[in-house]
Amino acid sequence: MEHLLKLLDMSGEEIIEVLNLADQLKYETKHGIEHPHLKGKCLGMIFEKSSTRTRVSFEVGINQLGGYAVVLSSEGSQIGRGEPVQDTARVLSRYVDGIMIRTFSQQEVEDLAKYGSVPVINGLTDFCHPCQVLADLMTIREFKGSLDGLKMCFIGDGNNMMNSLVVGGLKVGMAVSVACPEGYRPPKEILDFAKNYDCFELTDDPMQAAKNADVVITDVWTSMGQEEERQKREAAFKGYCVNKELMAQAKPDAMVQHCLPAHRGEEITEEIFEQNAQHIFEEAENRLHAQKAVMVKTMAK
Ligand code: CP
Ligand code: NVA
Asked: SUPFAM superfamilies from the entry (predicted)?
């Protein structure tokens, strides 16, 4: 694995291999078995958007693998003053062994990989959130025993999370149903990919999407960078809340995933969130294990 730029670049088998390694690293971490696969290696982390989970789980993860991290923010670096990504890529490649980046444009991440000479890991763009979805798939498999043949539904915005869940879910053999209002559907690139799968459904009816689902997933209605659209979005997503009525459509043992941070009372009720807190916080923990697996696969050479 050279980079992790988006799940569209990976095969289903490659995704499963990352999940298998993540499970193994989780086991070793829980049993005090050290695994210094990246001893002495440096991960450069670039944040052009806020983060709690991604920031902490990558830094703790590289440390557990025997390496260390250097963190750059756009404001505190020349990136915020307009230094071109082509130059940042070539400079950082001379100092660090891998780069994790969280930014707005997917093109910037692709360019970082194109112009740099070290592995690049996408820690969220407007287009996708592959690390999060690897952690989600890991969590679903942990609780359900397998992924193949399960039905996942995503209720809400056709955003980075929906995009990666559609691609990741279909690639590992899940049926994927997404419900979003018109005007908030996933981009053409994702729909073009998904239309090759009979088990993909796009609807504007959340109850329909949730029918017989094994896993119900949602995310905020207003993502980072869209703050000015908040009011308009709140109106557009009325009726897209994961609540008791929606959960009644899913299988009785359906689990809920949320990448966090969550807005209780908007995309999910307090009641449903707290009933599913065990699965949701395991999902947050699994960011650590899944990303360690990604770092090992890309940086241990
Ligand atoms: N889910 C997620 O990526 O969280 P952070 O924004 O806190 O990193
Ligand atoms: N869709 C959200 C995910 C945050 C982890 C955002 O992009 O803000």
From this structure: Aspartate/ornithine carbamoyltransferase
Whether residue 130 is annotated as binding a ligand: the answer is yes
Query: Relative to the alpha carbon of 222, which ligand is closest?
Result: 2
| CA count, 13 A, side-chain hemisphere, 37 | 18
Q: Which atom of ligand 2 is nearest to the CA of 51?
A: 5
CA–CA gap between residue 201 and residue 176 (Å, rounded): 6
First-residue to last-residue Cα distance in the chain = 10
The answer to whether the CB of 109 is under 6 A from ligand 2 is: no
Question: What percent of the chain shows pLDDT beyond 70?
Answer: 100
DSSP 64-79: HTT-EEEEEETTTSGG
CB-based contact 156:180 (threshold 8 Å):
yes
Query: Considering only CA atoms, which of 160, 28, 47, 26 is closest in space to residue 103?
Result: 47
User: Annotated catalytic residue: which of 37, 64, 126, 132?
Assistant: 132
Nearest CA to ligand 1 atom 4: 53
Q: Is the ipTM of this complex over 0.95?
A: yes
Is 259 considered catalytic here?
Answer: yes
Whether residue 141 is annotated as binding a ligand: the answer is no
* Residue 233 among known ligand-binding residues: no
- Whose Cα sits closest to atom 7 in ligand 1? 52
Domain extents for the chain?
7-129+287-300, 132-284
Domains 7-129+287-300 and 132-284 alike in fold: yes
Query: For the segment 160-206, what is each residue's pLDDT rounded down to a tens digit?
Result: 999 999 999 999 999 999 999 999 999 999 999 999 999 999 999 99
Contact 29, 64 (CB under 8 A): yes
pTM for the whole structure: 0.98
Q: Does domain 132-284 have CATH number 3.40.50.1370?
A: yes
CATH of domain 7-129+287-300: 3.40.50.1370
